[in-house]
Amino acid sequence: MRRWSDFPEDNRDRSVRQWLAGALQSGLPDLQPSERECWALADRIVAGVDDRSRTMLEVVERRYDEGELDRMAGWMDRVIGGEPVQHVVGWTDFRGLRIACSPAALVPRPETEEVVEWLLEGMEGVSPHAPGRPLRVLDVGTGTGCMALAIKAARPHWEVWGGDLSDAALDLARQNSAALGLEVHWAKGDALDGHWAPWPPTFDGIISNPPYIPSSESSAMEDLVTEHEPAMALFVPDHDPLLFYTALFQGAATHLAPSGCMVAECHSKFTRQVADCWQLEAAETEVLCDLQGAERAVRIKRH
């Protein structure tokens, strides 16, 4: 444990965040993070101790004791050492849900929250493929389960499935499901297997954030990602960057209900190619842009 003299003299919330942000900026010179990025990291570290809003903690003049400061300092050291802050603290926020994170699956990104919204919008007015049954949705390559769980939280009456080839990822998804009290059906399956067994035969909605980064791009990526997140969830062969989108399209042709909707997050370089690939008779295909204007996903709606 650090000595009390190692911590800021003022143990109130704002001073502690300022201390963490300054130490992070000094400790991460190679990454050259901005002051704003360091404050964001400090906020995540503080949230691991008390996840109330910064405004609330300032109003109540939250003070941190020596044990709490020591814990945050240890987390800060690990972040400076190269670990994702979400792994260090153990969770991240996704559409208001606390999602546990580990090296077993990709850390949920804020931009992926928009992909969930695009599916929910696309499902408006869709009727269940089987009368008398709830709408059924599949998250292909579910990872932490964040998208499946966010859909279930937003539409509790839907039947939601999460599938992944990784046993470790499915264990993490089940852990998140139990912690949140959200019932999702988790089943191991391979998106590249055209039969999509053992998932049900028909879905009204399909969502996916599949691997889409060409292997050759790995050398230009941060070690924070390549050394701590599963390669099988990130990379595809250079010669076949649309590998998973082709599989999703083939799966949709068989498993997506006649009035169903499918959305997948994409690499910005290949979004238009995915849209060209996703052409079904009696269906509308569209490219979707995120809040920054980047082409982020493709959505197909059958009529």
Task: Tell me what the structure shows.
The chain contains eleven helices and eleven strands. α1 (13-27) packs parallel to α4. The protein folds into two domains: 4-88, Helicase, Ruva Protein, domain 3 (Orthogonal Bundle), CATH 1.10.8; 92-302, 3-Layer(aba) Sandwich (Rossmann fold). It has helices spanning 13-27, 35-47, 54-59, 66-80, 85-89, 110-122, 146-154, 167-180, 223-226, 243-255, 271-277; strands spanning 91-94, 97-100, 136-140, 159-164, 185-188, 203-208, 213-214, 235-236, 256-265, 283-289, 295-302. The mean pLDDT is 93. The chain has a seven-stranded mixed beta sheet with strand order 5-4-3-6-9-11-10, with helices on both faces. It is globular, with a radius of gyration of 21 Å. Helix content is 38%, strand content 19%. The protein has 303 residues and is an alpha/beta fold.
Number of strands: 11
CA-based shape: globular
Q: Enumerate the strands of the largest sheet in spatial order, edge to edge or round the barrel.
A: 5-4-3-6-9-11-10
CATH superfamily of the largest domain: Vaccinia Virus protein VP39
Mean pLDDT: 93
Largest beta-sheet details: 7 strands, mixed
Terminal CA distance:
62 Å
Structural class: alpha/beta
- Helical segment tally? 11
Detail the poorly predicted runs: none
Approximately how much beta-strand content do the residues carry?
Answer: 15-25%
State Rg.
21 Å
**What string gives the helices and strands in order?**
HHHHHEEHEHEHEEEHEHEHEE
CATH topology of the largest domain: Rossmann fold
* CATH level-1 class of the largest domain: Alpha Beta
Number of domains: 2
Per CATH, which architecture of the largest domain? Answer: 3-Layer(aba) Sandwich
Fraction of residues in helix: 25-40%
